[in-house]
Amino acid sequence: ALRKSSSWSSRFETAVRWVLNQTDGRHDLLAIADRTALPFESMDNAARALEQVQLLESRWPERQRRGILE
Fold first, then answer.
1. 0.85 cut: is pTM over it?
2. Alpha helices of 1-70 — where are they, by DSSP H?
């Protein structure tokens, strides 16, 4: 089985913390990524993981997703 690198894991955990902290309806994922200097992909992965466990709900249907979460 392939294992994620510790740097990937650390980046993912950091992104999860930022998404949980900043998703208040005023900040989108692009703005959060800009503030953290993490790649947008990291923010998107974190947001999707949080959606899967129902800690975050997207404002937009998947086809309209623009990175804005609540």
1. no
2. 6-22, 29-36, 40-52
Q: Which residue type does 51 have? A: E
Residues 1-25: tens digit of each pLDDT = 445 666 768 899 999 999 999 988 8
In 3-state terms, what secondary structure has residue 65? coil
Q: Is 20 helix (H, G, I), strand (E, B) or coil?
A: helix
Q: What are phi and psi of 28, to 5 degrees?
A: -95, 170
Closest CA to 19 of 38, 3, 2, 6: 38
How far is Cα 30 from Cα 23, in angstroms, rounded to an integer?
Answer: 11
Longest dimension (CA), the chain: 40
